Amino acid sequence: MSICKKCILPDYYPGIKMDEEGVCNFCRDHVHIEKLKEELESKSYELDGIISDARKNRIASNGVYDAIVPISGGKDSAYVAYVLKKKYNLNILAITYDNGFLSGYAKDNVWNIANKLDIDLVVLKPKWSLMKKLFASMMRETNEFCNVCNSMGYLLVASYVMRMAKVWKHIPLTVLGWVKRYEAQPGIQSFTIAEFLKIMEKQGVIDELYNDSMMDKDVIDKFLKIGDPRKVSISEYKEKAGYNVLQLAEYIDWDIDKVVSTLKKELDWIVPENSIRSTHFDCDAAEIKEYLKYKKHKITQRTIISSHLIRDDRLSREDALEILNNENHEKPEFWDEFVRRLQIEDVQI
């Protein structure tokens, strides 16, 4: 194995091509963050307009909230809530989706965020009997389970938004914290909601999902048309889903070090002592996700994120190599508990 001389992606990464100097195509094609500053400045004006429209919409409809912000307790969603409240002074409703594996750190951070920002918070916790079947079905079919959280998060929040509009007040805007620039995994499959639903149908649990009390059937049908919601623009959301959704990181410079320092100072945001900036510690099953990804692709999300950060000069290659060398690819301690909870002793990894 050899790795890129600029980032730390290995030569077996899907779609990678090394040049004569040992630099990969992802590094060669990368547009540095400094070159995007002018574009981001114009995007910030667009964001100002979107937020102004949401506020006007809320006032005109005599509503209560300008925006919904799903928060997990992790840094990105916390920073979304912080920016919208502190910079734009929006009336926001935070929604936390408890998938059954929400970590203690996540719960503490969620409460801190709500208290420090003085915002309303709703916790959506689907029946464990349903979540267990969804997780187990995905594991049996794909040896992967994170797509359950990704898909259910979108479907649950959208269902909540639509039901609020029907029985109470319309909320003009939903703002998410997926950071495409650093979280995207080119070459490694990420299941769409449509693919997730097909797997659930194959596993015989689709009717139970459709008929769950937290789900809106119309929402599920609309998301089938959307495809991958992380790649859809706000205008496409409006056209296909009937409401506005935006990824805040597409409109402002997302400097991870600045994000973390701001959250620690302003919101008492906490992180495990042994954590690195790319660790997904708001879920107890996160290390299992990394373990399964490594088993399948011989690479973890940490390596991918670190490579993104190197290209923007936000992480040194030396520090990234240290992160890589300190990775533990053994079966996580939480594995036995994970298997016990989902009753998937029959799954072959």
Would you write up a description of this structure?
- The chain is globular.
- The mean pLDDT is 91.
- The protein has helices at 25-28, 37-60, 75-86, 104-117, 128-142, 146-167, 180-183, 193-202, 206-210, 217-226, 234-241, 256-267, 286-297, 301-311, 317-325, 335-342, and strands at residues 67-70, 92-97, 120-124, 173-176, 244-247.
- The protein is an alpha/beta fold and 349 residues long.
- The protein has a five-stranded parallel beta sheet, with helices on both faces.
- The relative contact order is 0.15.
- Helices cover 52% and strands 7% of the residues.
- Strand 1 (67-70), helix 3 and strand 2 (92-97) form a beta-alpha-beta unit.
- The protein is built from 16 helices and five strands.
List keywords for this structure.
single chain; 349 residues; alpha/beta; 5-stranded parallel β-sheet; 5 strands; 52% helix; 7% strand
List the helices and strands and how they pair.
Layout: H1 25-28, H2 37-60, E1 67-70, H3 75-86, E2 92-97, H4 104-117, E3 120-124, H5 128-142, H6 146-167, E4 173-176, H7 180-183, H8 193-202, H9 206-210, H10 217-226, H11 234-241, E5 244-247, H12 256-267, H13 286-297, H14 301-311, H15 317-325, H16 335-342
Parallel strand pairs: 1-2, 1-4, 2-3, 4-5
Q: What structural class results from the helix and strand content?
A: alpha/beta
Q: What distance separates the N and C termini?
A: 24 Å
Query: Helix segment count?
Result: 16
Identify the overall geometry. Answer: globular
Strand order of the largest sheet: 3-2-1-4-5
